Amino acid sequence: MTIAKLPERIVRLDELAHNLWWSWNEEARRLFRALDYPLWRITMHNPAQQLRRVSFDTLQAAATDPAFLKLYDSVMSTFDTEMSSSTNWVNTNYQSLLRSPIAYFSMEFAIHNSLPIYAGGLGILAGDICKESSELGLPMVAVGFMYPQGYFHQNIAPNGWQEEVYRRLDFDDAPIKQVLSPAGSKVVVNLQIGDFALAIGVWQVLVGRTTVYLLDTNLEQNPQSHRQLWSRLYIADRESRLQQEIILGIGGVRVLRALNINPAVWHANEGHTAFMMLERLREEVTKGASFAEALGRVQATTVFTTHTPVMAGHDVFTAELMVKYFSDFWKSLGIEREAFLQLGSQDGSPTQTFNMTAAALRMANQRCGVSQLHGKVTRQMWHSLWPEIPEDRVPISSITNGIHVPSWVAPELYHLFEGYLAKDWIKEHDDPQLWQRLDDISDEELWSVRRLLKLKLIAMLLEHNQDHWAHGRVTAEQVLTMGALLDDNALTIGFVRRFTEYKRPLLIFRDIERLKKIVKNLWYPVQIIFAGKSHPTDAQSKRLLQQVYSLAGDRDFQGRIVFVEDYDMHIARYLVQGVDVWLNTPRRRQEACGTSGMKASLNGVLHLSVPDGWWLEGYNGNNGWSIGGDLEPLNPEEEDEVDAESLYRLLEEEVVPLYYRRDRRGVPEGWIRLVREAIRSIVPVFCARRMLKEYTERLYQPAAQSSPVIDRR
After folding, report:
1. How far apart are the first and last CA of the chain?
2. CA-derived radius of gyration, the chain
């Protein structure tokens, strides 16, 4: 929506608000803060909504304020330079990749909280990839879903039970725009799904130089029953989920064709997107290729990333459902029913199910897991697809995930690094040599920033509670359970992640009395903040959450256990920046990678984790703590016993004493030594910049070299 009331002198504020580049540019964020700070806070840092609500008088004052105009001109100059500059890593090193874009398909994208179409880590990674692609100059278009209701908002009832609340997104308040044809009409693609025809519209989100296209079925051409069917992320009903994935994969390819976008490389993020490969197979066969030839061409130009180390977590559909929706499709491929179903067979034998990950692995030549350990687990898991070769030679590599540093670093640390590392440190943050300059920052300065970030976190949680109380969403007792008694002087641990059994949120409560002694220590108090959501249909995980919430309300803990309601990207930033310790306790080999600990480490929060996922690579003995040692998976009871004992011992003998061991200035020198090493050793290695450079060098470039230049008009 264009803001008609913007004065001409600052009219490009609307353009800036609708390109999420501002969300990771500190100067741009400062511009919107300066425009109307109270409104910036009320809208939860959403400039699109801010501009709709800001008063005309405020805009007029900004348009004549020399200080504001100086900042505005500086931001717009930087924006224009970065959107058009040819001086970037890809242009310098892989100019051939610039001929055609990489198409990145994902079920969810977490780019900013103003666009709540994400559930968790998969979406966070997808959003960070889009941002870093823009920074590196990597030509990328992304395809996902425009969920009008997105993922749910979380209410916790007084008894601790999670309640899901779905709120319809006001498109005018979101940084999105409808995609129009050159003639000005809405771009619409038609798709036959089983026995009904569906029209698909398209919205676009600008993420710097990367464009994300979001598919929308809420069109007048569609029956009402079909318009709302795809309003939510990750529908539990299997048939509805299959329909969603058909729209994303097959519809997504057709939308790109309708927009005259012909990618050189196709990247599928998780098995949900595998139908994208099927549609390209159909295209090649339609042009005259045999099925074998078409499969070879699709494989050569496809990159597939799998994120799930547990077989039960992969999308599987019954043969009956596949026949219902694809009986005509396999005919267009020139193959029979059994050959089609074999694409999704888990072991190559006749099957009554269609596994989306197995299909994606078969239709992509470039395949990877998301950490070194996950690569090993994935090769073991899918060895049945290549039974003729040794397990360690199964053609699935690994590229460890990373985080988009500009999005997750605290402003206070950003400016501290500007003063000591380099004015433009953000442009070279994947260079390990840069981080050697951390030694120039005094312990006192680093500790002062860490203290400030904790104060900001506690203030945010207090405001969060006040708002809930004022609107009658919580009882007085719940206000205490949700953080009203937090102490800014206490060692603060964060357990913040999706609530599910394998992440073991109850592990730290295994010995309640021992934990009470730790948190209630008069001289060395500890407080623990929990936050996260359970899947709406996962009753077991909801019960876990309820147990944690109930324990948080136990008066014997003296308010030192807290549960934060409705965790999202906005709250996440405060948590990964403001706690002292980031706790992670998954069952071994069930955490593919995890990235929240990377975000915490970037901000000087020390990681206390089981050596699973990325931490097996990241831990060096001086940058955090490893729980339980590098053990082979045990049975669950033994694993819990070993890890709980290790966790308690680490807290009692190392973590808590080190935090409270202060010099005469009140600075914990030993603690800050670990903080400095965590930042130095983790940031340049576990960043999205390193990750995308690896993707480009190892997967995108080989795939692009196999991509023919095809006239598809």
Report:
1. 32
2. 25
